[in-house]
Structure formats: C-alpha cells, structure tokens
Amino acid sequence: MNFPPREVVDRVKKEFPEGTRVELIHMDDPYREMPKGLRGTVKKVDDTGTLMMAWDNGSSLGVVYGEDSVKKLDSVKVTCYGETKVRDSRKEADEFYFQAICGSEGSEQERYTKIYAELLNGNTECSDEYPDICPRCGKEYKGHPALSRKDNKTYICPDCGTLEALEAVGASEETKADIMKAIHGE
Ligand SMILES: [Zn+2]
User: Fold this and answer.
1) DSSP secondary structure, 114-161, as one string
2) CATH number for the domain harbouring residue 23
3) How far away, in angstroms, is 155 Cα from ligand 1 center?
4) pTM over the 0.85 mark
5) What is the per-residue pLDDT across 11-68, written as a single tens digit (0 to 9) for each?
6) How many Å lie between the centroid of ligand 1 and the Cα of residue 146?
7) In angstroms, what is the span from residue 166 Cα to ligand 1's centroid?
8) What residues make up the domain containing 172?
C-alpha cells in the first residue's frame, strides 16, 4: 500500500478534526455492512491519513485515504436545557429552532431564540446558556441568570438579581447582608 505524503496527511488532519461528522460516499467493504449515506464521527486521523471512525451503526472501520471517500456534514453542536447534541444538518437545526420559537413562549421561547440567533450567526456551537460571569459583581455563577432591573437587558447572577430587587425597595446594607447570609445558609 502507498501511504500519502506528509503534507497530504496534515491536510486531512486539519480538515477532519476529532468530532467531525461525516457521511459515507464509498468504502471498499468486503462485509457489505457499510452503505452509502451511513454517518459517523471522526475519532482521529492516523499518520497514513486514515480516518479512525465511530460509525453510527457501531462499526469502527477506518476511512482509508485514496480508497474510501466521505463528505463532511454541515453539523452544528447545540446545547439546550443542559443537553448537548450534534445536529448533522445546520439547515434542519435552523428549521427546528424556528418552529420551536413559534410553538413556545416566555423563558422557553427566549432559550430557542438565543440558539436560533447563534445558528443564523454561523456559530458551530450554539447554546441556550448565558455566559456564567456576572457583569455586575464579576463572579462566576451557576444556574439561570436574573435580568437586571436597571436596563432590562443585562443578565446578572441570581445573587445580584436579589440585591437589585432589595435595592429597589430601599433595603439597607445590613438587611441585604442578612438576606444574602440566609440564602447561602451561613
Ligand atoms: Zn453578580
């Protein structure tokens, strides 16, 4: 067998990083279990340019450079409600989240809208999660953010949301500190 030159192998490695979703066009397959159109995920590219694979049918047959052929799918990674899924078609993902926006309201619709906006923006990873650094206190936080009362568009951490609410009713520094202690069980 002739191995491809190093620059070709490097190009293949660059084109198919780990996690790339592909669809099979043709494979020299003596067992006839690898139909055209089968999809799979690239695990690694070895030094002969062969794609090490995890096919969706459970097979791990490699894609040999110069003999077998695959095409890259226009896939996109979407995180929604804490679950991350790879969707093989950006177009289908666009349509799915557009329908989801139309069929939902309130905070659910907000999540889908955020994902849809990122899809349209061409992001390869889209998520309904907000950055977890609070712009008000600069601390990292977990959980669903609060919407700042000050401008009604900045997302802040739940603690800052509570503090703003307390400030809005004129709570003293002491009261705010006591309530924060109570929330955090100190
Ligand atoms: Zn904060």
Assistant:
1) HHHHHHHTT-SEEESPPPSB-TTT--B--S--EE-TTTSS-EE-HHHH
2) 2.30.30.40
3) 9
4) no
5) 999 999 999 999 999 998 877 789 999 999 999 999 999 999 999 999 999 999 999 9
6) 9
7) 14
8) 130-186
